[in-house]
Fold this sequence. Notes:
The complex is a heterodimer. Chain A is an alpha/beta fold. Chain A is 47% helix and 12% strand. In chain A, strands 2-1-3-11-6 form a five-stranded mixed β-sheet. In chain A, strands 8-9-7-10 form a four-stranded mixed β-sheet, with helices on both faces. A two-stranded antiparallel sheet of chain A has the order 4-5. By secondary structure, chain B is mostly helical. Helix content of chain B is 70%, strand content 1%. Chain B is built from 13 helices and two strands.
Amino acid sequence: MPGNRRIKQQKRRIRRRPGAVAATTLGLASLLLSGCGPADSGVPTLTWYINPDAGGQADIAQRCTEEAGGEYRIETALLPNDAAAQREQLARRLAANDDSLDIMSIDPPFVPELATFLAPVPEDVAQSTTENTLDGALQGAMYEDELVTVPFWANTQILWYRESVAEEAGLDMSQPVTWDQLMEVAAAQDVELGVQGSQAESMTVWINSLIESAGGTILETPEAPADEIELGLASEAGREAARIVGTIGDQGLGGPGLATSTENTSLIEFQGETGSFMVNYPFVWPATQGAVEGGSLDQAVLDDIGWALYPRVFEDQETAPPLGGINLGVGSGSENPELAYQAIECIVQPENQTEYFLTNGNPPSNSEAYEDPRIEEQFPMAETIRESLELAAPRPQTPFYNEISSGLQQTWTPPDEVEPETTPEQSAEFITAVLRGERLL
Amino acid sequence: MKTNGRNDDYSDRAKSERRLGWMLAGPAFIIMLAVTLYPILQAFFDSLFAFRLTAPDERQFILFQNYVTILSDPVWWRDLLVTLLITVVTVAVELVLGFALALVMHRALKAVRGWLRTAILVPYGIITVVSAYAWFYAFDISSGYVNSWFNWVPGIDQDLNWFAQASTALPVIMASEIWKTTPFISLLLLAGLAQVPDELTEAAKVDGATWWEQMRKVIIPNMKAAIMVAVLFRALDAFRIFDNVFIMTNGQYGTEVLSLLAYRTSISRLEIGLGSAVSVLLFACVLLISFVAIKVFKVDLAGSTGGKR
C-alpha cells in the first residue's frame, strides 16, 4: 500500500540521518580546521561589480584571470539593470567603505559624484590605458582635469533612419542633417520620429545633446559647490533645444507614445510602419538582427535601415552626440588596489574591447580596437560610431549630476508642454532651488 | 477573570499567568522595539541634519530646517493629495466590492464554497510587483491590449497614452490596487459575517424584516468591529502604496505618492537628512490615521478577534 511505503521511506530517511549529520559536521570541522573556505587557495580574489550584459564582462574576467597566472583571480558580481539603480548601489557600498569594491563598472555621468571614494589611478596605468582612447570617452572618465576612472567601452547615439523615408523626402543622408529637416519630413509624410520623451535619463541625454549641439552647455560652473552652481539653460542654446523638443511634442511628431517613450519603445516604433528617423544607441542593430532571426521582423525592415551622425541643431555647427559607456574604477576601500589596476589594464586591452563589441555589441573606447576587420563586417556602422564618439559631449560633470538630471526630466516633460520662452528659465530656477536645498525634487 | 481592573484585583493565579505571559512575550517585544523603534529614532535624528551620503564631511546640524523645506514645498502637498485620493477611493470601492464578495462566499453552496474562496483569493496571492507589471503591460501604449480591445468605449482609442497624465494613470493604478486587495478585505468581512449569530437574522426574518432591513439593522451593526478593522488595515496599507506607482509611472506626470517621494529623496538622491524627514512625516501621517480611526471611529481591535464582546 502506498501509505505503508511512505512510512517505510520516512523511517529509512530517519535512520539515514545520523550518518548525514556526521558527514556534514566532519566536513565543516575540516573546513574550520584548515582555516579557510574552499574558494581560498592563497590567490587574492578581486571582485568586479559589472552592469548586466550578454556575458561579455564575465568572459573577460575569466580571460584575465587565466592571463594573471595565479597572481589574482577576478570574480564578477552583478549590479542592477538600469544606470540609476547601479549608481545607488555603488554609492551606498562606497559610502559604507565596502572592501569588496575592487573593480566597478561605472556609467560616466556618475563618475564625479563617486570620485571621492575611488582609489587614484597610478600614473603608469593612466598612461597605458588611455593612449588611443577616443576623445569623448576620455572626457567622461575624468573629473577636475584628472583621470579618476579608466575608459572601458563607450556608447553614443547615432541617427538611424529608414532609407525609404529619406529617399521619398529627397534627403541626402551622406550630408549632415538637422533636426528641422527631420521634423519637416515627419510632418509631411505623417511618420514618427524616434525620440525618447519619458521622464527618465534618456530625456537628459537628449536635452544635453541639443544644447551642446547648439553651442551651449547645461552646466556653466562644473566645479562650484551646490549652492553656487550656475546653469546655462536660459540661453539661446537652451531656447533652441526647447523649441525642438516642444515642436516635436506639440505637433505629435514623436507619436502618441512620446511622453512615455524610452530607448526600447522608440526602437519598436521605429521598426514599425510609421518608423522614419530615430536617435538611439548601437544596440539597435543587434536587436533588429535578432528580431529578424527570431522571425518577429521582416528582413526588408533590416535592409531598409541606414545610419548617420546624430542630427545637428544648426546647419553650420557640428553636432554633439550623447555619450555613454562604462568606465572602470577601483574603490578606495579595496584591499588590493594595485592588483585591481593591474587587472583593469588587462580588461581594457584593445583585443578585449574588440571581442566585447563583437559579442555584446558595446563599442570600444579605444580607437585601435576598431581596426579588427571583423568589426566592419558585423557592424557596418562602426566607422560612424567611432566618428560620433570623437564628437560626443559628456553630460554635466558634477557630483550633483543626479539633481540636475532629475530636475531637467521633471521640467522638460511631457514634451508637448515644453515652451522655448518659459521652460529653460523655469527649469534653471527649479534646479538651482533644489541644489540650494530649498525645494524637494 | 476581570479584564480591566487594577492589578490588586487579580487572583494569585491570574498574576502568575500574567507573569508567564510577559516572560513568553517579552523577548519578542524587546526584539520588536529594537527593529522598529531604533530605526524610527535614528531616522528622526538624521532628519535634523543636512546630510548627503556621498559627501559625509559636509554633514551639518540644521534642526528642523528639513521639515520647514518639505512642508513649504508644493511637491509634498501634491504627493499627499495624490496619496489621500488613492487611499479614499480604493478603500471605499474595496469595501463595497469586498462586502459583496463576502456575502457571496458566505451564502454560496457548500459544494462550491471552497472553489469560490480560492478563486476570489487568487489576485491577493500574486506578488504586488508582478501584478503591477501585468497591469502596466496591459495599458502601456506600445505593448498593451486595452486600447485595441476597448476602443469602442468613449474616451479610449488607439492613441491614448494612459501613463502620460495623472487623470488616466491614477485610475489604472487605483484599479490595480483594488483588484489586488479586495480579496483581503472580503476575507476580513467574511470573518465578521460568520460572527453574526444566525438567531438574530432568523428573529428579524420572523418579524418580517426585508433583506435590506436585515442588513442595515442586524448584520452590519453586528459586524461593525470587523468592518472598522478592515477599513483601518486597508487605509494604512493604501496610504503606504509604493510598488504599483513605482512600476507603472515611477511617479512621473503628477502620480507620485509619499512613499515614492521618501524613496527618491533618500535612495535616489542619497539626501539622508531630507529623506529621513520625509519618512518621519510619512510615519506621523500613518500614526495620525491610526489615532483617528481608533479614537474617533472607535475601532475595537480586540473585538474583532473575539477577545472582548
